[in-house]
Amino acid sequence: MEAQRVKIALIGFGTVGSGLVKILQDNAEHILHKTSLQLELAHVVDKDLNRPRPVKLPKGLLHNDLERVLADKQVTVAVELVGGTTTAGEITIKLLRAGKDVVTANKALLAERGREIFETARQCGRCVAFEGSCCGGLPVVGAIRKGLAANKISAMYGIVNGTCNYILTEMSKKGKEYAEALQEAQQRGYAESDPMLDVTGTDSAHKLTILAALAFGEEVDFNSIEVQGIDKVQLADIRFGWEMGYAMKLLAIAEQSQKGLSLRVHPSFITQEAPLAQVSGPFNAISIFGDAVGHTSYYGQGAGMMPTASAVVADIIEVAQGNALRCFAATPGLGRPGKSARICPAEEINSRFYIRLSLVDQPGVFAQVGKILGDRAISISSCLQHEGESPDCVPVVFMTHPARKGDVDSALKELAQLEVSKAKPVCIPIVTPPEN
Amino acid sequence: MEAQRVKIALIGFGTVGSGLVKILQDNAEHILHKTSLQLELAHVVDKDLNRPRPVKLPKGLLHNDLERVLADKQVTVAVELVGGTTTAGEITIKLLRAGKDVVTANKALLAERGREIFETARQCGRCVAFEGSCCGGLPVVGAIRKGLAANKISAMYGIVNGTCNYILTEMSKKGKEYAEALQEAQQRGYAESDPMLDVTGTDSAHKLTILAALAFGEEVDFNSIEVQGIDKVQLADIRFGWEMGYAMKLLAIAEQSQKGLSLRVHPSFITQEAPLAQVSGPFNAISIFGDAVGHTSYYGQGAGMMPTASAVVADIIEVAQGNALRCFAATPGLGRPGKSARICPAEEINSRFYIRLSLVDQPGVFAQVGKILGDRAISISSCLQHEGESPDCVPVVFMTHPARKGDVDSALKELAQLEVSKAKPVCIPIVTPPEN
Description:
The structure is a homodimer of 436-residue chains. Chain A is an alpha/beta fold and 436 residues long. In chain A, 37% of the residues lie in helices and 26% in strands. In chain A, the strands form three sheets. Chain A has a six-stranded parallel β-sheet. In chain A, α4 links the parallel β4 (75-80) and β5 (101-104). In chain A, α1 packs across α12 (305-320), α4 (87-97) packs parallel to α5 (107-123) and α5 (107-123) packs parallel to α10 (202-216). The radius of gyration of chain A is 24 Å and the shape is elongated. The two termini of chain A are 43 Å apart. The interface between A and B is large, with 62 and 62 residues. β12 (294-301) of chain A pairs antiparallel with β12 of chain B, so a sheet runs across the interface.
């Protein structure tokens, strides 16, 4: 088969951009052998021309003039690795209008301005490819769109932010406090110097927006996702949960039920035997449940220079082979007119819950608590109170059977108002994926 | 986007064929929504027209005349689910020559007659799609070919036969003997009534042939794979290994080293913390290591009516969108002229080993064993002998540091000839995937 030359423009020469350059330099021959494509960088555009980078470019390749890319008819694929949602959005739209297919790893852009970007692509007869936007090198976008295309997907549970998973792993396994674990994540380069997007759960919600649109074939509104991060997690709850057989993970969750699609990101307890509980450190994993295929799960490095660049190159290949355009054109939920997802109201979610109360140790307290829960048909599946705590304020942990979230919220409100309650109750959902 | 009608012929109306019919009946609208493809069964061909099946077909669809399919120009995609390597091969070649793209889940056919099938497809300008041939619904063929295309792959470790994994799980967790666990696997429908292809490792080797060709971009000769099944595994070794921190799995292994590509299937010990050690029952999983992406891993149901049918439908979609043909045409190692893999000779493999000897309990025995190992620079990393065994024949277990397999084989030969050795030594490789 004759080799096909593909001229590529890279916009944004940062960490992942450097990884992309490295792969194109080191593995060009290998990629040519495996795909018959000769991938060639024709432009590298960045406003900063002088910053030291881990890779060297041939003279003349790096410049700061996007117009040159737009005007270069030989460039058919442009890679947007600028980051952020403003400049990156304008650049992406310009590239599409100039007739380029765009590969991007920018989850914030696609989650927050996806409709505009995708509609522009359709109007221009071009496509946007974004394997690198979710879970770095883990080819989960392809798995959902293609490998599982025959399935009605009922649920997805993902550990999709490596920073948060690293922090929770350190807290769980080494008993570190949140602040210490966060600092370590920053020192190791997992967390940004401003880690807010990660620890507040926003980054996970960005990825969930994209993955859910693909999985359910419906447009998903980023703002409809309930998001809670790990920044308020207390070591005490990780310990109590662990003692009761559960590991804490920040999960991005999509569940289809009769009441609609529930999309949420929150710290969650999962049984220690669950495959997701074994995912530690900065790794990512997603469990997906389809009606034909049952349970499949995907594990790998969800971020970083080389894993993300690996996904970007995979997209460039799909674009160059023409597969990405056909697939994009046919995919609903990406700027194609269609129904928006019917969202399950938060209070209608059915889940088990971990509830920690801080109670005065005196007779009759359990009866008061039991009544509040029982009145709402919230049934307790297990309970834990240690001896030897100060009688003024004893932590008591309850695990419930499945209950309606609205009922639990109302119980928590009443529990907080009890005179014997000495601190705000802590409530963490226990997530139970379907049996296989 | 306008819907595209796709007329499909199914050849072989058995278990997976019934699963395919079920998906096309139940999920047609869903697939249309997600892909703009209207998938329609135009023919179902089987020599047995009367056997009861779990799905119902419209009148006239089922017949036994392949010629009608070959002559039907509206049929562009044919699905071969006949099984076996003779009739299935002839049918596949006829279908390709009649201008149909072929989707198959037949790993034996592709592993043993792949070159002929793939070359025919190329000559006819058609393609063969085979996601269902490896690990059922788990989209690992797509992950290797597309998601990881940018990577030089250094190693793959797969639990790719659910029957064997079920048997080993029952032996490990419940202390069952091999024969009992096998019988149970048959009763549960995991194993065929003739389970030889599974338990001898042949089925795993079939899958390894296909996956390695894709991963390394080189033609792989099925007969070059060293295969050992689980049919000789003894419960005693599973127990000793577990006690020393290792789980036994039947692994299909591909490792690239300076001495060439090592391809092998054998019972293996892996550390209990490894993600693959957590894979139990009939599930499959594959860990793949790429130079850019690092470690990624894929988990799911590797066989069965619905999971395999899920993969078959994914392939039909890829074929109908035209992606499969482009991808097939560009992929080396599938009947495209190119280099064959340089195979690492078995004796040159470097591995750790578990060795169990049955020794007379008398002074000087350890010295004799130690000398035989030491003479070949085989270093012991741990050792286990329980008290209270019969002095006539004591099981003694050694775990080695990495050693050359040829040296270990020669040591085993000499150990077997020792007068104090009362049974043939047992030797099981300890597999150590790369860090990360």
